[in-house]
């Protein structure tokens, strides 16, 4: 599959429902998960796409595309239940072929309409009854053990909605990491949170057993941040930079990452330059396209669509070139979104 075709899939999506898919939530949502030409691919499900997944192949307008497609079976751990009867599927979900992902707190103080990130649907899955508001550390430990034993999961991602506390949700993340680490010592874990006001919490997360961390800014342009994520924009970029620097000190070079979303209005050349500064810090810029998520403000009010394919490919290639020069690869992260790579074309262009 050419890079351009992979870009088209990431932006146009597919018609059809792969066995492993996901609706609204904090991470990749309205996506189907497949392995395409040997690489993880989280592909939007779009009823208007020219690409069709027919259960075994991806076709374009009824014709063969030549892509090698492996489906991912519904995981067996989904059939388990906690001691009080909650389905394991509501505690954590399979992403891609071998990543266990969970949002440990499914609510966010920034979800009010005037504060909410316009691309986010973190609380919509809670309203739909497909998850629970707060995941208990002991339940996550049981689910992780089952996912490893039954389905061969090789890494775990724990993210969280932002809390009112100075830790911004990181303390509960640490509790969850400790419990999973005790139950499944061999499972690499990435945590994701906003920059904590007290940077010592970053060390607490590492001491709890986290292997990598994502501190996601989404854009390095303050005008874009105020427009798309007004709540998060109240945290100055200087706090992000301080948190990234401390995280690199604590977790190590190329074990820290941040999302950069193409299609929010940031100048592409400025994004590439900003990504270069992150790379120089030892932070992996995980460059993804904006994806319209049903239930988000961007879809329901703004009617925002995905970015231009040529722009996304240009940015991804330029960032990948910088990563190659720096000797940084997503696959070298111990766990997390960059290690999986399904939501980005960076793995296809050398990142």
Automatic annotation (TrEMBL):
<keyword id="KW-0479">Metal-binding</keyword>
<dbReference type="Pfam" id="PF04055">
    <property type="entry name" value="Radical_SAM"/>
</dbReference>
<protein>
    <submittedName>
        <fullName>MSMEG_0568 family radical SAM protein</fullName>
    </submittedName>
</protein>
<keyword id="KW-0004">4Fe-4S</keyword>
<keyword id="KW-0408">Iron</keyword>
<dbReference type="InterPro" id="IPR007197">
    <property type="entry name" value="rSAM"/>
</dbReference>
<keyword id="KW-0411">Iron-sulfur</keyword>
<dbReference type="InterPro" id="IPR034405">
    <property type="entry name" value="F420"/>
</dbReference>
<dbReference type="InterPro" id="IPR058240">
    <property type="entry name" value="rSAM_sf"/>
</dbReference>
<dbReference type="InterPro" id="IPR016779">
    <property type="entry name" value="rSAM_MSMEG0568"/>
</dbReference>
<dbReference type="InterPro" id="IPR006638">
    <property type="entry name" value="Elp3/MiaA/NifB-like_rSAM"/>
</dbReference>
<feature type="domain" description="Radical SAM core">
    <location>
        <begin position="94"/>
        <end position="332"/>
    </location>
</feature>
<keyword id="KW-0949">S-adenosyl-L-methionine</keyword>
<dbReference type="InterPro" id="IPR013785">
    <property type="entry name" value="Aldolase_TIM"/>
</dbReference>
């Amino acid at each position: 599959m050419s890079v351009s075709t992979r870009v088209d899939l990431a932006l146009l999506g597919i018609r059809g429902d792969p066995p492993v898919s996901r609706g609204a939530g904090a991470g990749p949502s309205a996506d189907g998960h497949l392995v395409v030409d040997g690489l993880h691919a989280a592909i939007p499900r779009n009823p208007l796409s020219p690409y069709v997944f027919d259960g075994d192949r991806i076709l374009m307008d009824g014709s063969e595309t030549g892509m090698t497609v492996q489906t991912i079976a519904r995981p067996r751990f989904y059939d388990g239940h906690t001691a009080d009867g909650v389905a394991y599927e509501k505690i954590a979900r399979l992403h891609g072929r071998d990543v266990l992902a969970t949002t440990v707190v499914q609510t966010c103080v920034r979800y009010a309409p005037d504060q909410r990130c316009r691309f986010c649907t973190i609380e919509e899955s809670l309203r739909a009854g497909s998850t629970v508001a707060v995941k208990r550390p002991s339940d996550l430990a049981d689910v992780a053990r089952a996912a490893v034993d039954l389905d061969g999961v090789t890494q775990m991602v724990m993210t969280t909605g932002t809390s009112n506390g100075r830790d911004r949700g990181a303390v509960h993340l640490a509790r969850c990491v400790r419990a999973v680490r005790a139950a499944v010592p061999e499972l690499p874990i990435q945590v994701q949170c906003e920059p904590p006001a007290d940077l010592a919490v970053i060390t607490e997360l590492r001491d709890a057993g986290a292997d990598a961390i994502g501190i996601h800014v989404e854009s390095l342009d303050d005008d874009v941040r105020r427009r798309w994520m007004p709540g998060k924009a109240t945290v100055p970029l200087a706090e992000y930079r301080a948190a990234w620097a401390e995280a690199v000190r604590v977790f190590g070079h190329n074990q820290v990452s941040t999302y950069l979303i193409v299609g929010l209005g940031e100048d592409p050349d400025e994004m590439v330059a900003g990504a270069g500064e992150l790379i120089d810090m030892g932070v992996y810029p995980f460059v993804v396209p904006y994806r319209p998520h049903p239930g988000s403000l961007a879809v329901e009010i703004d009617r925002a669509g995905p970015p231009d394919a040529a722009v996304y490919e240009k940015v991804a290639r330029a960032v990948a070139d910088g990563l190659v020069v720096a000797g940084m690869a997503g696959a070298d992260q111990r766990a997390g979104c960059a290690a999986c790579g399904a939501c980005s074309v960076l793995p296809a262009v050398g990142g």
